[in-house]
Amino acid sequence: MLSGLLLLLIGAELSVRAAVHLAAIFKVRPLIIGLTVVAMGTSAPQMAVSLQAAFSDNTDIAVGSVIGGNIFNVLVILGLCSLIIPLRVARQVLHIDIPLMIGACLLAIGLSWSGEFSKFDGALLLVALLACLVIIIRQGGQGPRHGRAATSGKPRTFTRMAMLTVGLLMLVAGGHLLVDASVVIAIHLGLSERIIGLTVIAIGTSLPALMASLIAALRGERDIAVGNVIGSNLFNLLGVLGLTALVAPMPLTISPNALVFDLPIMLGVSLLCVPLFYSGYRIDRIEGLLLLALYLTYGLHILAISTGMALAERLESLMLTAVLPVLGIVVVWGTVRAWRRQH
């Protein structure tokens, strides 16, 4: 497990550093690099786990890890990054990328109401992913050089691309090691496949994205930190779920609990990004605390229903009746003030 963490740390540093330099070399905004290259790379463990689970007939894990990963990405990664440094959000994120993420959620939910994801559904999700990538890249356009002016040239470009590749491979390897160790622990605790997928595997496969965004935030690369989260969510829903459904030997069945609880929670979390990002086009620390508190409440709920632990139920009640309302009022007030300033 320690070796996995070390690989994640080193891989995240290499990936972010290489992504920043490549953005400067190709005169592409770092946001686009975060939304595409970094996001796809950090979602690779999710792809590997979902495919393996589908071929092992563990469809609850294949689907649950995608849903849980998307919830974790928004609530925990954005929450932690905003505690490090308030995240300024580019207008493209609010006007284009967030609607695409919400649209992907709605598409996945719409296809799921049949109770399964068929091969046709998988192909449709992959087509939607390609369309999203085209929109993101075309709308991103050519941006100014970021940071220091980068010296163009094939040797320098090759070096940065090699660094990015090595960094992403280290992220994948580190995430794989942590997931394996975590699953063994979860099985010993007697957790169900759905709960393991929503929590242990979802968190484990999201650790590369977490480390990449945290390192980006620490280095002041806010566009990469935010873009990585949104891009990972798009790639998880449309790419991972789509390819898994397309190549799996059997349709991916969806549990009733996922239909009535997990998928709506994922959609609600995505919709929450709209008012948060609209308040001054930034996520402040208090809003980051709200996101983390929401995930803590969600985690306590999952723990309470899966284990029947009385302490988890009491803590969940405390979060719902005291902590979340206070944080929610503060965030709503901040959003209203931001709207008044803009108008």
From TrEMBL:
Molecular-function GO term, any one: calcium, potassium:sodium antiporter activity
InterPro entries: K/Na/Ca-exchanger, NaCa_Exmemb, NCX_ion-bd_dom_sf
Gene3D superfamilies xref list: NCX, central ion-binding region
Compartments in which it is found: Membrane
CC annotations in GO: plasma membrane
Pfam family, one: Na_Ca_ex
Membrane-spanning residues: 61-87, 94-114, 120-141, 162-189, 195-218, 230-252, 258-278, 290-312, 318-339
Keywords: Membrane, Transmembrane, Transmembrane helix
Keyword Transmembrane helix found: yes
Single biological process term from Gene Ontology: intracellular calcium ion homeostasis
Membrane topology, record value: Multi-pass membrane protein
Domain annotation Sodium/calcium exchanger membrane region: ranges: 2-137, 162-299
Annotated protein name in UniProt: Conjugal transfer protein TraR
Organism: Pseudomonas avellanae
